[in-house]
Every structure is written in C-alpha cells, then in structure tokens.
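Before relying on records like the one below, remember that each one covers exactly one chain. Contacts with other chains, cofactors or solvent are not represented anywhere in the record.
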Amino acid sequence: MFCTLNENFTSCACSESGDLDLIAIKGTCATSEDEKEICDGQARLFLILTFFTVMFEFMPPTLVPIGTLRAVDPNLKGLSMGLQWVILRIFGSIPGPIVLGKLMDMACLVWQEDDCDEQGSCWIYDNRLLWNAMFILPIAMKGINIFCFFLAGYYYKPKVSENESEKFDSIKSSGEESSEF
C-alpha cells in the first residue's frame, strides 16, 4: 500500500492526481499570510458565536421557572412546572440529540469500515454541513426561543386583584398629596 520512511509517505494510491510518485510529509501544510488571516478571522467568529450560544443556552433555565411561577395562579404552580418540564423533555431533550446526531452523520464524508464492511465512526466531515448542524441550527432555534419569550412578555397581562388595586390607588393618591409640599 504505502511505505513510511522518516515520516514521509510514498506510493499513495488515494492521491487526487493518481500519481504514485508523490511524497506526502507528516505535519501541517504551509499556508500563506492571507490564508492565516482568514483562518484567524474564522476562529474569532467561532469564539464569539460560541460565547453567545453558551450564554443564551444557560440563561433560560434560570428565567423560565421564575417567569412561570410569577405568571401562574398560586394554586396551579405545581401543575404548571410539571407540565413545563414534560413539554420541554418531549419536544427538546428527547428529539434534540437524535436530530443533531442525524445531521452530524449526514455531514460525514468518510466512514470507518472494518473487515466485515460494517460502518464505524466518521473519519472526515464536510466542514460546511457540520457548521450548519452545530451552530446555524442551534442559533436559529435560540432565535425562535427568544422571539417567543418576547411575545410572551409583550402579551402577558398580569391579573390584578381588588385588594392590590385598592393598595395601588391609595399609594398613588398619598404620593400625589405628598408631592404638593
């Protein structure tokens, strides 16, 4: 197949040109300054997107239960929290990893195969498809999530009881009297 001598690979039948006289050397390929700048820019973009993805991923587990408990009738708080977690698990935690795994499998270009022609793990991924599966789809889902939170906040009308209404009126009227001095 191929011979290695001093970390050089020769007689590579899988080379793109089909030339068996080519020699491949172990290590990284030489790149120009322009390619390095592009790579650095992509790395910065990756880190920025990762920061915001993690930030928006860990913000809702704190905010959603607080919002739910404040918005629901006190007699229904237990039921509302239970239903919230069931819905979250049914529509998020169960199908999410399955869909993400399928998208990652679709991004695979070269699969490992054993002697029995059984498929193993992925060796090489298509970077663009993997980018879409790992960042674009989750960011789009987070965008939809944030949009729904803003809609809920916009359309939520708190229920004001008669006692609270009277307290508010008395505070408002006492504030107006004290502001005249």
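The first helix runs from residue 33 to 58.
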